[in-house]
């Protein structure tokens, strides 16, 4: 797993060992991440990355948020309550020397504290099929800026919850990415 583009292009990220089944991590593959960021930077959604404050819910290895930083995001808040994920996120932030641009919250995604500042771009990659996406979005209401773009990866296409508008859906192998816009 590596950073695809931007200032950290080509940097290999720490990832869960193949023998550590207890971690329950399912990182977004390089190919899917590259396609996803091509959509984000293709102009259809304006410029959602450059200078953005990013919230990476169920962050796993932190690859989505770190890719956004590499491509010009101003700050990323990573949220993951799993110990293996926290260790990987810390290692990857240190590897890129981006500690000043990152915050790691070690809480469940549906139990967020009050935000210091709202975020413009939200990555939502919950464990598949557990219904945690809507719970996390509801818990993150004060983290989501009006008009923010939400990128939701799941095993199936998702319907827009109340307060959000569906913009697009893309299938990448066994994953679906749903793009939502928060109400203004």
Main attributes of the structure:
22% helix, 7 strands, single chain, 184 residues, 7-stranded mixed beta sheet
Structure at a glance:
The chain contains four helices and seven strands; from the N terminus they run αβαβαββαβββ.
Classify the secondary structure makeup into a structural class.
Answer: alpha/beta
Low-confidence stretches: 19-23
Percent of sequence in beta strands: 25-35%
Widest beta sheet: strand line-up: 3-2-1-4-5-7-6
Structure explained in plain terms:
It is built from 4 helices and 7 strands, in the order αβαβαββαβββ. The chain has 184 residues and is α/β, with parallel strands linked by helices. Mean pLDDT is 91; it is low at 19-23. The radius of gyration is 15 Å and the shape is globular. Strand 1, helix 2 (63-70) and strand 2 (75-79) form a beta-alpha-beta unit. The longest helix is centred in the middle third of the chain and has 14 residues, at 83-96. Strands 3-2-1-4-5-7-6 form a 7-stranded mixed β-sheet, sandwiched between helices.
SSE topology:
Blueprint lengths: L29 H11 L12 E5 L5 H8 L4 E5 L3 H14 L5 E4 L13 E6 L7 H8 L4 E11 L9 E9 L2 E8 L2
